[in-house]
Design goal:
By secondary structure, the protein is an alpha/beta fold. The chain contains 16 helices and 25 strands. A hairpin with a 5-residue loop joins strand 19 and strand 20.
């Protein structure tokens, strides 16, 4: 039967899903709520809206128009938040530059994205000096500062940020346009070769914002985000839109705190001073805070924290809960905007001891609304929700990137079979909770069986002497691969802990949990630190290369 089209009134407003729409609600119900900087300065949402208009006017005076690309290099500040809105609302493209890449990689991303304007914080002028003469498309530079005049630099600055805003009008006529217009671009980390450009449209960012707000707000009690929360990002704003939460926080009209550079004493003081109740970060950031001397003087009992970017160890979940932190996992990747799942607890489990709650809080979680997530075999056939059947995680949702910028071959591989391939291995239990067991490239294949590096890391982190650990595969003539654990010990327990003690601990837990018997083939090396990516994740690729030729004493064969 043919489908009848719904009649549209000629004068009706079609309402495209544009980022500017996220500002409508907070300006009505919370116009006086504050946006706060690390130095204590603050302004309200009315001023935020005015500054967004001024920034757009200032950029327009530099020649920025629809389709132009504006790159930003800065710490997490109110100015970055203003760029999140003003640039895409003009119809231009916001490039969030990963400040922790090497100068050569930063140069590559700026040239590859064809940036027209570079807005840069003063701390990053040494990087600019190293690459300025090799920039191919950047024609204007703006110093992200309130300085009266720019410092000596290898380029001529077109403007200083605050002076640019002060000279621009307080109103800017942000136009309507196609909601599928590109809004942002940034570059992935931890890949071989050059970073890949990932891009998103207005429609995708708005839908991701709405779905994340729905998932966070519909939680019965644990992990619920609401209008009275106080938000502080601890995921860099250059990294996947700070997981999209600045857009969520702004749409909901939350009080927001921007910490600048991530210094542990500053972060803990801001949590206390501004009564921060919601943040998100990778495990290494929370680990840094939990082991800082100031943590014992800081009340964290109202703080909700989403952990993502890497698996959260159960030991961390337990330690955080004992300090009163409502900690839980979120899952996604650069290509997914990023949030796909959140590990909210059923109300009945919120009274269980921390050790029992940790099993659910560290799960990868339940899919957000509109997320079609499957675990499949090599033939792309869905596996049952039995908590055991393991395969690759593939996904569809309206906000996934359509591909990699100017890289059709990688884009086609990413979307093979009309689902986005995450490269993660996992299973789904009967209640719908996803559990990632490893990255496909990190799983250890011993004796024809898969051994999860994440499970072994979690086991080792439950030993009281272990501070950090990374488990990687090491080539072995007999078994194919063996697990190699790179362990950083707590200083006060380093002298009393041996490799044999940790191996015994692993063997006991492997037997208790019924894991692959090949896990007891683990080798252990004590290290002073672990190599991480620019966003704080364990860089296992680099560690595999570093320790590929390491000689390990042969162990007794297992039967």
């Amino acid at each position: 039967m043919p489908v009848k089209n719904i009649a549209v009134t000629p004068s009706a407003y079609t309402y495209p899903l544009l980022i500017k729409s996220l500002l409508i609600t907070p300006l009505v119900h919370s116009p006086e709520r504050e946006i706060i900087q690390a130095d204590g300065s603050r302004y309200n949402y009315r001023t935020l809206n005015e500054r967004i208009s001024r920034l757009a006017g200032g950029l327009a005076s530099l020649g920025i128009e629809a389709g132009s690309t504006v790159a930003v290099m800065d710490w997490d500040t109110h100015r970055y938040l203003e760029c999140y809105f003003a640039v895409p609302m003009m119809g231009a493209i916001l490039q969030t530059v990963n400040i922790r890449l090497s100068p050569e990689q930063i140069l590559y991303t700026l040239n590859h994205a064809k940036a027209d304007v570079l807005m840069i914080g003063a701390d990053f002028l040494p990087v600019l000096e190293a690459i300025a003469d090799k920039l191919e498309t950047v024609r204007s530079f703006v110093l992200m500062s309130d300085a009266a005049d720019p410092p000596s630099a290898p380029v001529k600055f077109s403007a200083v940020y605050e002076k640019l805003l002060s000279s621009a009008p307080t109103n800017f006529d942000f136009p309507d346009f196609d909601e599928n217009t590109q809004a942002t671009v940034f570059y992935t980390t931890g890949t071989t070769g050059n970073p890949k450009g990932v891009y998103f449209s207005h429609r995708q960012l708005v839908l991701h914002t709405l779905a994340t707000a729905a998932a966070m707000g519909s939680a019965a009690c644990q992990g619920r985000l609401h209008r009275e929360d106080v938000y502080m990002p601890l995921t860099p704003m250059f990294h996947v839109h700070a997981w999209g939460f600045p857009y969520v926080a702004t749409m909901l009209g939350l009080k927001q705190v921007y910490p600048g550079q991530y210094l542990p004493d500053r972060l803990l003081k801001l949590i206390a001073r501004e009564d921060v109740t919601f943040s998100h970060c990778v495990p290494t950031i929370l680990h840094m805070l939990l082991h800082h001397p100031l943590v014992d003087q800081t009340d964290l009992s109202r703080w909700k924290v989403v952990i993502g970017g890497a698996a959260m160890p159960k030991a961390m979940a337990i330690a955080a809960q004992k300090r009163g932190i409502d900690i839980f996992t979120g899952y996604g990747m650069s290509e997914t905007c990023p949030i796909l799942t959140l590990a909210h607890l059923p109300t009945a489990r919120t009274e269980a001891p921390p050790e029992e709650q940790a099993a659910l809080r560290t799960k990868t979680g339940l899919p957000l609304p509109l997320v079609d997530l499957r675990v499949v075999d090599e033939a792309m056939q869905s596996l049952p929700f039995d908590g055991k059947s393991t395969g690759e995680v593939v996904v569809r949702s309206p906000w996934l990137t359509q591909g990699y910028l100017s890289d059709p071959e990688s884009s086609e591989k990413l979307w093979n079979g009309s689902y986005l391939h995450t490269g993660d291995i996992g299973h789904i239990d009967p209640f719908g909770y996803l559990q990632i067991t490893d990255r496909m490239k990190d799983v250890i294949k011993s004796g024809g069986e898969w051994t999860s590096s994440l499970q072994l890391e979690d086991i080792l982190l439950q030993h009281p002497a272990v501070m950090e650990v990374a488990v990687i595969a090491q080539r072995d003539e007999k078994w194919g691969e063996r697990p190699l654990a790179l362990v950083r010990l707590k200083p006060e327990m380093a002298d009393s802990t041996s490799e044999s003690k940790l191996r015994k601990h692993v063997a006991e837990q492997v037997e208790k949990l019924g894991l692959s018997r090949y896990a007891i083939l683990i080798n252990i090396i004590f290290v002073e630190g672990l190599t991480k990516t620019s966003v704080g994740k364990l860089n296992k690729r680099a560690m595999r290369e570093e320790f590929a030729a390491t000689k390990i004493a042969p162990e007794e064969e297992i039967s």
